[in-house]
Design a protein that fits this description.
The protein has helices at 13-16, 21-28, 44-54, 69-84, 101-112, 126-129, 132-136, 148-160, 175-184, 189-202, 215-221, 234-248, 252-264, 269-284, 290-305, 310-323, 329-344, 359-363, 403-414; strands at 34-37, 58-63, 89-94, 117-122, 139-142, 171-173, 211-213. It has 420 residues and is an alpha/beta fold. It is elongated and about 100 Å long.
């Protein structure tokens, strides 16, 4: 059912619509080197085939999974001969992110001088998986998952096409089933067509030889597609980023949604917990120190209970962190202190803060003038604890939220003369 021309192609209107880049290439019959980045089943391979055909070029296809420099060298020689005869060669490399640096380097001069027109397809972020010199010689296009409406149209065509689909067979599928199949495919046309094929082939014909497929048949087929998630790929980091930002943004509903996505995709609990603990410390901090306690307790509970019971402790902690008052004062304070360490180097410890453990050290002034805080009312006495060049620096500047409002007032009374 792969589309044979653009009239059968669905999706990617942002690239193929009037005045858009690929539309202009088709109208001028000139295609340039491209990197097509998008999820599985969104039409990358089909798009490359149709672009080559519509612009009068010959398509040569390689898969980065089982190809190497030897195969690339053969294609380049073939392209040179074709170029002498006035023919263009489009080299389509599926899963180009699997090529190593040496293999990608080999392509550079031939893409640069136009010996081959490269179209690479990848499900991974090309800025991480394709070398910068090759990216600079290609236009990167982002392909989107197909909409449920697009997939529904593809399913309907598969049912009515007499040559490649079920048009010559007596098959009737209830509209609700097509809707559910289109949703279950999650933007992947290949998955949708495979689901339909499995459903049709596994359904026996009725008394009149006609296959009628309803919701009960769909339930019996137990058709379920795992959520798209690659622990080593960009989607992994996208979901974790969305989870952390929802915690920081005080949205418990979004935090629970992204947590559910991570759990359903089988993400490592330790990875999720690391983000949760980081948010409790970085984004809540002393506005509610108990948030870190709850997050650590969730870690202990998950390790003790395992799955699925540990999920509730994790969800409880996520909601607590999301609902807690927020402050990044500790985070900013540490960053500022590190910057001073880098700028000023290893400044000497003031003499009054040094420990006079020997008579010699006492004679050298170690500990001289140190004021023991507990000897003063309220357990506080003002004295400098920083090296002289930094004596007036304030790294920790509490917010006016949560417990930090109390800490802020307390420090203000203690250190009224301290700059910051």
């Amino acid at each position: 059912m792969r589309p044979r021309d653009f009239s059968e192609f669905r999706g990617q209107e942002h690239l193929l619509g009037q005045g858009r880049l690929l539309r202009r290439m088709l109208e001028s019959r000139k295609v340039s080197s491209l990197i097509l980045w998008g999820p599985p089943g969104c039409g990358k391979t089909t798009l490359a085939r149709l672009l080559a055909r519509e612009t009068g070029a010959r398509l040569v296809t390689l898969s980065a999974v089982d190809s190497g420099v030897k195969d690339l060298r053969r294609v380049v020689e073939e392209a040179r001969r074709a170029r002498e005869q006035g023919q263009k060669i489009v080299l389509f490399i599926d899963e180009i992110h699997r090529f190593n640096k040496a293999q990608q380097d080999f392509l550079l001069p031939y893409v640069e001088n136009g010996t081959v027109i490269l179209i690479g397809a990848t499900t991974e972020n090309p800025s991480f998986s394709v070398i910068a010199p090759l990216l600079s010689r290609c236009k990167t296009l982002i392909l989107r998952p197909l909409s449920s409406r697009d997939i529904r149209q593809l399913l309907e065509r598969a049912l009515t096409d007499p040559e490649r689909g079920y048009g010559k067979e007596s098959v009737e599928v209830e509209p609700e089933v097509l809707d559910l199949l289109a949703e279950a495919a999650q933007g992947d046309a290949r998955v949708a067509l495979n689901l339909l094929e499995t459903l049709v082939e596994s359904t026996p014909p009725g008394p009149e030889g006609r296959k009628h497929i309803g919701l009960a048949d769909l339930e019996r087929a137990l058709l379920e597609k795992p959520l798209r998630h690659d622990r080593a790929g960009e989607e992994h980091y996208n979901l974790l980023s969305a989870f952390h930002k929802s915690l920081r943004g005080s949205d418990p509903d979004a935090a629970l949604y992204w947590l559910a996505r991570l759990l359903e995709a089988g993400e490592d609990l330790r990875v999720i917990l690391r983000r949760l603990l980081a948010a409790a410390s970085e984004d809540v901090g002393n506005a509610d120190p108990f948030a870190l306690v709850v997050a650590v307790a969730a870690k202990e509970a998950c390790e003790f209970l395992g799955l699925p019971e540990g999920e509730l402790a994790l969800a409880q902690a996520a909601v607590y962190v999301a609902c807690a008052p927020k402050s990044n004062a500790v985070y900013r304070g540490l960053a500022a202190a590190k910057e001073d360490v880098r700028r000023h180097g290893a400044l000497p410890v003031p003499l009054h803060l040094r420990n006079p453990t020997t008579a010699l050290l006492q004679a050298l002034g170690y500990g001289r003038g140190y004021k023991y805080a507990h000897d003063y009312p309220g357990g506080f006495v003002e004295q400098s604890y920083l090296p002289d060049p930094l004596r007036d620096r304030r790294y920790y500047q509490p917010s006016d939220r949560g417990l930090e409002a109390t800490l802020r007032e307390r420090l203000r009374k203690w250190w009224q003369g301290k700059k910051g």
